Amino acid sequence: MDMNTLNISATVNIFRLLARPKLILPQATVSTFNHLPIPLNSAFGKCKNADIRAVVLDKDNCFAYPKSNDIYEPYNETFKKLREAYPGRRLLIVSNTAGAESLDRSGKLAVEVEKSTGVTVLSHASKKPGCGPDIMEYFSKYPETGVTRPDQIAVVGDRLTTDVMMANLMGSYSVWIKDGVVPVEETSVFARLEQKFAGFLIRRGYKAPEPASPFEK
């Protein structure tokens, strides 16, 4: 097994699901990237107080083919609208490939994605879902984003045990892209299993956690 591709963060955090299985349930679900409501506040209809000031984007199978550094062509217009709604540092790409130190030590992939998308790619040592602190540190460095609490951030991605779980661990909102660029039958066994598990939880009456700053009780 290639240790560079092993997501130790996800493996460790999976044990948290034993105590809090709802951590993999999103606050909002859309079919594809093109179905994102922009601005994202409207995605969380039941949460009238949602105040999304910044967006964290997954890359692989979210807005790009896995291992591709370019935006999937049919998603170009939606990506453009997202950049306009969340300009500058208010839009951040957090990937478990580009920018992940275990796979992109030189930062070459991150640079290529930034050139292709015009969006900053976060460099992080711990893979999702464990890099929430790195994300908060990033936004704290740039007050122009207006982010002062994790519940002002929305995480958009196609994986429940990485993107969605990270958002819930942070106290942020999540938007799950149910149908990625790659057809479901061609995704990994883990991706298919987590979808089935989420469906089981919903049928049992579980609901997504309510986003809130850990400092506000």
UniProtKB/TrEMBL annotation:
<dbReference type="Pfam" id="PF09419">
    <property type="entry name" value="PGP_phosphatase"/>
</dbReference>
<dbReference type="InterPro" id="IPR010021">
    <property type="entry name" value="PGPP1/Gep4"/>
</dbReference>
<dbReference type="GO" id="GO:0008962">
    <property type="term" value="F:phosphatidylglycerophosphatase activity"/>
</dbReference>
<dbReference type="InterPro" id="IPR027706">
    <property type="entry name" value="PGP_Pase"/>
</dbReference>
<dbReference type="InterPro" id="IPR023214">
    <property type="entry name" value="HAD_sf"/>
</dbReference>
<dbReference type="InterPro" id="IPR036412">
    <property type="entry name" value="HAD-like_sf"/>
</dbReference>
<protein>
    <recommendedName>
        <fullName>HAD superfamily phosphatase</fullName>
    </recommendedName>
</protein>
